[in-house]
Amino acid sequence: MNTKRFNGTKSFLKRFMMMLLFSFSVIVVLSDELTYDAKVVLIVFLLTLILWTGTRLPVGYVAIGSLLLLIFLNAAEQELLYTSLSTEIIWMLIGAYIIGEGFRSSGLSGRMTSFIIERANHTQHILFYLLLALLPLSFIIPSTSGRAAIMQPIVKDISQQLNSVREKEILALFVPVIILLTTSSTLLGAGSHLIGNELLEANGGERISYINWLIWGLPFSITIGLVAFIIFIIFFSRALIYRKNKTTRINKRSNPQPLMTIEKKTITILTILIVLWVTESYHQVDLGLITMLGAFALMTPKYGVISWKKGLQSVSWNLILFVASATALGKQLVETGAVHWIENGVFQLLQIFSFIPDGGLVAIMILIAITSHLYITSHTTRAVILIPSIIMLSYSLQLEAQTMVFLSLIGMNYCLTFPVSSKALLIYFEDEGCRYNAKDLSKMNLILMPIYFLLMIIFLYTYWHWTGLTIS
Asked: Transmembrane residues, as ranges (predicted)?
């Protein structure tokens, strides 16, 4: 009986969502404010979203199909397809995959895996050590997808120690979730932070310094990371069955072997990469170019770590094509004015409720930021689209622009609804060797999204307020 009710509720929700999408499509078609190109892009985007979330078609196939449809309907130029592969994030992803393979092939990921496995007596320990390993990564790798790609070989190695398929799924979900939740630790945690900061200064606001962001962002990231860890332990307690046997326990503190030449090479290249990533604001070399230089160095014949062929085979081309096409689709949404039309509607609605106290308006804006990944899939695009409007709205409502930009960027870092909501999630969802279940992600999202929102509100009126982050 419960199963029938669940299926009935699920069917009703599907029909309800289809009615909403159909109603929105009718509004789009009848709107006088939208051009033909904007109408087509919006409808194609809705169709794409349905196929991404409601079917098992490869996300890359759907994304490329959406671009081809736009071009066929004369709503975009043919160059859109070709230029979609020329963005920085594409080359950063390719480089990150190759670097991740170099990290694994050199044996360093095996060392890290051994360190975790030797000290972990059960799965809960493995997740906790991974949490500790992931927290500092946001300081040195300025890309969520880069961090996900770097950690993938380690996750694969650890998963081989687990006998349960269910535990492997949980492990594959835990890592990208923590990567995304800890993005707010530092100003370098995501490119959207830098974009938002630049837009803030360009519109007359005061930039958020690296130190201030660290003071405000790090405690929040640690807190939400620990909360997520606890939720995973409670929610999946029955599935976490791994226990180390007695024989392994006796030998778990074996003496570490000295570093091999190949490992020393990899450490040297990674160290140089980290320094270049962190000092990007000084030398002005793009992060994508730096990442590709590191990947190129790792594949250097005779002196490198991996072969050219092995490096290319490590790249998830399905994900690359998805990111390229989805980014191009997002660009069309912006350039045709489609997103601006939606954005105006949302912020005009906020203006109507200007009588609401400042705290209520801030809560609404935080909610918009947290849910923005549902209609703007690219993290960077979300910042480019929403931050200028948030700054202008802050000035008109006499709110502190710096505070609103920081809160909005923290809110935008939440993107855990669907596998396509983040490239970090897609990397693990598309991996046949160690992938998570999309239903588990949806369930975790239902728990984590309200907690994330409430934690931001609590921090706003306690710690952030005490450390100088004021609303007005």
From this structure: 41-73, 80-99, 126-150, 170-195, 215-241, 262-279, 285-303, 315-334, 346-370, 382-399, 405-426, 446-466
pLDDT digit string, tens, across residues 128-173: 888 888 887 776 665 677 778 778 777 887 777 777 778 888 888 8
CB 101 within 8 A of CB 311: yes
CA 323/CA 420 separation, integer angstroms: 9
Residue 107: predicted pLDDT: 77
Phi, psi of 83 (to 5 degrees): -75, -10
Q: Residue 242's closest CA among 250, 251, 233?
A: 233
Cβ atoms of 436 and 172 closer than 8 Å: yes
* DSSP letter (8 states) at residue 122: B
Q: Would you call 145 exposed, middle or buried from its count of C-beta atoms within 10 A (0-12, 13-18, 19+)?
A: buried
Nearest in space to 113 (alpha carbons), one of 425, 438, 434: 434
pTM of the model: 0.68
408: three-class secondary structure by DSSP:
helix
- Could you tell me which residues come within 8 angstroms of residue 146 by beta carbon, excluding any fewer than 6 positions away? 92, 93, 96, 99, 291
**Burial of residue 357 (number of CB atoms within 10 Å: 0-12, 13-18, 19+):** exposed
Helices (H), 279-337: 280-283, 287-298, 308-313, 317-335
Q: How confident is the model over 427-447, as pLDDT tens digits?
A: 888 766 677 887 888 888 889
End-to-end C-alpha distance for the chain, whole angstroms: 53
d(CA 89, CA 110): 28
Rank 13-27, 116-130, 448-462 by mean pLDDT and report only the highest.
448-462
Task: Give whole-number Cα distances, 435 to 18, 174, 381, in Å.
Answer: 29, 11, 27
- H or E element, residue 93: helix 88-105
Residue 210: pLDDT band by 50, 70, 90 thresholds?
confident
8 Å CB contact between 150 and 111: no
Best CA proximity match to 104, nearest among 179, 156, 141, 159: 156
CA 178 vs. chain centroid, Å, equals 10
Question: CA–CA separation, 121 vs 128, rounded Å?
Answer: 11
What's the confidence (pLDDT) of residue 391? 79
Burial 431-470 (b: 16+ CB within 10 A, else e): beebbbebebbeebbebbbeebbebbbebbeeebeeeebe
Radius of gyration of the chain (CA): 23
- Distance between CA atoms of residues 442 and 422, nearest Å: 14
Using CB atoms within 10 Å of the CB of residue 231, give its burial: 0 to 12 exposed, 13 to 18 middle, 19+ buried. middle
Which helix (H) or strand (E) element contains residue 97?
A: helix 88-105
